Predict the structure of Triosephosphate isomerase.
Amino acid sequence: MRKKVIAGNWKMYKTQAEASEFLQKFLHSLEETPDDREIVLCVPFTDLGILSKSLHGSRVQLGAQNVHWEEQGAYTGEISGPMLTEIGVRYVIIGHSERRQYFNETDETVNLRLKAAQLYGLTPILCVGESKQQRDALETESLIISQLAKGLVDVDQNNLIIAYEPIWAIGTGDTCESIEANRVIGLIRSQLTNANVPIQYGGSVKANNIDEIMAQPEIDGALVGGASLEPDSFARIVNYQ
Ligand SMILES: O=C(CO)COP(=O)(O)O
C-alpha cells in the first residue's frame, strides 16, 4: 500500500499570529481523521518555529517550501537542510512551478536541492507539471518525462514524494479532471524505479472535489494551496472519504 499524503502549501501567506489562530481551529478537526494518511503543513520560514512547538504531539508534520544544496555558506536569502531539521521540519517542497517561474529554478537546481534534502534527512516533495501553452501544444508528456529525468538523477526514490501540478490548474479554480490527473500520474509512475513513491495531485484542490480526486487509483494525495489556508476547508480535505 502506498502512503497517502495530504500537504498544505501556504506559499507566502500567514504571519505567526495568523498561523497560531489557524492551528487552534484546525487541530480540533483531526480527532476522527483515519490513520491511513499523513498530514503535512508547508509554511513560510518565519512560521516554522511556532508551528514546530504547536504541532509537537499532534499528527501533523512540518514542511518547508525550499532548501539550498549547501550545508552553509554565502547564499543570501537561502536556507539549509540542517537549519530546517534542527527545528523539526520533515518535508520540503522542491521545484514548485512558482519557483521555476519567478526564481529561476531549473531542473538542475531542482536536482541539487532534492539530493541535499535527502542528505540532511528531509523528504522532498518534487513538483512537476505543464503550462496551458505546453498542454495545448501536446507537450505535457514529453515535458513531464524530461522534468523527471533531469530532476531525479541520483535521487533516492525510497525517500521521495512527487506532486503533479498542472500550472493552468493552480489558483484558477480550473481543476484538472480527476481522470486526466490519474492518467498523467500513471505516466509519472511509469518513469520511476520505485513503484511505491506517493504521487500527489495539486491544482485547485478544494473541499468539494477532494473525494473524487482521492478515489482515483493512481492518486496518493494532494498538495493544496488556497484551500489549506482556511481551517474548515483544509480539515474537510484531510478528512476525505
Ligand atoms: O500550487 C499549489 C499547491 O502547491 C496549488 O495551489 P491552489 O490549491 O491554490 O490551486
